[in-house]
Amino acid sequence: MDISDFYDTFFEEAEELLADMERLLLDLDVDDPDGEDLNAIFRAAHSIKGGAGTFGFTVLQETTHLLENLLDHTRRGELKLRRDIVDTFLETKDMLHDQLDAYRNGGEPDAEAFERISRMLQQMALDELGQGEAVKTTKPDPEPAPDTGDSGQAEIDHDDVGVAAARRLSITLANVSDKDRELLVEELQHFGTISSQSGDVARYRVLLDSNESQNDIEAVLCFIIEPEQLSIEVEGTGAVEDLAAPPAATSVSEMASPAAQAFSETDKDAPGGAAPPRGPGKPSGKSAKGSESSTIRVPVDKVDQIINLVGELIITQSMLEQTASDLDIVSHGPLVNGMNLLQRNARDLQESVMSIRMMPMDYVFSRFPRLVRDLAAKLGKDVELVTEGKSTELDKSLIERIIDPLTHLVRNSLDHGLESPDKREAAGKSPTGRLTLSAQHQGGNILIEVIDDGAGLNRERILAKARSSGLAVTDSMSDDDVWQLIFAPGFSTAEQVSDVSGRGVGMDVVKRNIQEMGGHVEILSKPGRGTTTRIVLPLTLAILDGMSIRCGNETFLLPLNAVLESLQPQTDDIYSMAGDDQLLKVRDEYLPIIALHHALDVTGAKTELTAAIAVIVQGEGRRYALLVDDLVGQQQVVVKNLETNYRKVPGISAATILGDGSVALILDIADLHRLDRCKSQQRHEAKHQHLQEVSLA
Amino acid sequence: MSAQANTNAPANDAASSEYLVFSLGDEEYAVDILKVQEIRGYENVTRIANVPEFIKGVTNLRGVIVPIIDLRLKFHLDKIEYGGQTVVIVVNVDDRIVGIVVDGVSDVMSLAPDQIKPAPEFGVTLSSDYLSGIGSLEDRMLVLVDIEKLLTHEEMQLVERTAESA
User: Model pTM?
Assistant: First the structure.
């Protein structure tokens, strides 16, 4: 197996670690940082560095190294955190992310950016620690030891990969059973020569001459025992001193000398009384263990394959059920019972398989603290971000597509919604604005809300803007209708086009994206109280609640959420307009009539309007009456993509497989409307063109 | 043209390639057997509106929606009623699965490179662009169809164009 096979795993892990790092950095209380959090941040940087080193991603390794050094000082309380330091750390994290992307795409990271960030970090080390780390080389450099330390035993927390010379290591095993001990000693022999070993179960000491790093040894031993049971120390005295340059004995001046720099791979955790007592080896050993046991990484297409197969199973099951329902229950009792059992099991299976694709909303929400923090700082606003319902689950494909629209909404709320602190105070509100992101289930839908307690939408300004951009508006429009105006293309009430919003990629894109996902957006707003933008999404794209209808002898499916009502048209309610077009009066509304058989050329359908059924449907804000022959019933169907092997078909959004194994097409309400328009206008033209093509072919 | 036909024909001089032979009326056609995924009967095809006539619709192939194309209609042969002999050759080209309706499948033939002649350059209805040559086998003539070209270039784009103009 080639080492590059592990690249993907590393990239994914590194990405997660970076995300963790960012989250922890953001949560950090600058004045009183939590030690455990600092350790966790340090560990994340350390793990990335280790991986980067293993895979030869030098730039990434060096950047993390610099960051790690600073984090280490922070962790030990030598570097006092400030907001701008955290900012620098965050910036470094972004840089690491860029580097990671570069490596992932098979390139080399931007050298200039690396130079800049490493200078910045080095400068910070210089300024904050006031120590002569005159580091200009791009090699990972040893840190200045804060203290010369007593040359005796040094506790080693961390180590760099690969150590040049052999040293004597004192390995202490605490509370290790005899059997495990034997195993461990055997393992240790692979690392070097064991010069002596003694002790009992509670405390067993092994002296080992080895040129392996403590980290490597730790990592191996931790397969057998817990990191807490293990401590590895460098014997800094005696005969080995000549062989190696034990870091314990290195002083600041020595470290800065070129000779010491050449030994750049020595321990960077300098010894001394300042070092807090920590369980050595805790970081890498533990985190790796913890995550391995509880999750596995599976490519999405494998999951999708299972989902497909389960879909097949469901279809087969309903085919069987149809056949079995014709049988006499008395004489086929066991079969019928078996069928019921099969049905239940199949449904359960489907449910649990579908849940694999579900991801918690935290995946989306977790990227906002950073965004809000940066943006609020840029806009000079004080914002508190609250997230609710982080564990609410949503289909993976949806969760990835919701990020952009949600980012846009959050930016909007920050830029337009929330006021500046002095304006807020003048309005009698707390100077800190509050932005809430919430997610919750409601029936088969998920509600995602972006709530701000800002100024609310300005009705007059929206109306004025709408007028100036030529939209049809009246002063008597309901608030809800007015709010919907901001979804019109090119609509922005931002007085100034800022860096943040008002750049044209507007709310119309948000709305379109969400509609493409089968959802819709609502806005609730009160002047002075704030605005709530509510996104309603189906839980999954893979299953659709459909209404099956019949036209001629063909069956189609309508998405149930597009269906408002159905009725039998009466002659009195049908009006014609401009000759061809017909309108149906439903209560006080006149709706255009679209005959399905006309749009989709169905033969043998009921052409008499009053004999057909009118289904009132709504899609992309358009409402019309769709004429069909019959309603068959409601059912849940598994959505199948038509484009996999074919292409987009006008008026059709996807297909599904019915109980009898045949394919039924799912109608695209909005597209059907467009299609009908086109067909009426271009029927003649299209025919002509088709004939031409036929003769050309 | 002939140069192209030669390169499309089995490239290795020594190795002969295997072809699946099918019939449309009295004519015999053949496709590269490596492109063929399976052969099945014609059943349960759901019509799609507003597409060219030769696209019969879509069917369910073990949970995958697959378009079905009638080669008779594509090649402008007479329309016939589908019967028990009518089969669908399911081919896999360019990561797409497409079903082709033909009158019947006769056999699998092995053709050596010297048995494959360049396609003639007339072809009014059947463009020589998507023929990879003519296979001559004693007294039989096999029209070798480059199914990949037929389905990806000509066919699929034709579908795209018609749909856009409709």
Answer: 0.51
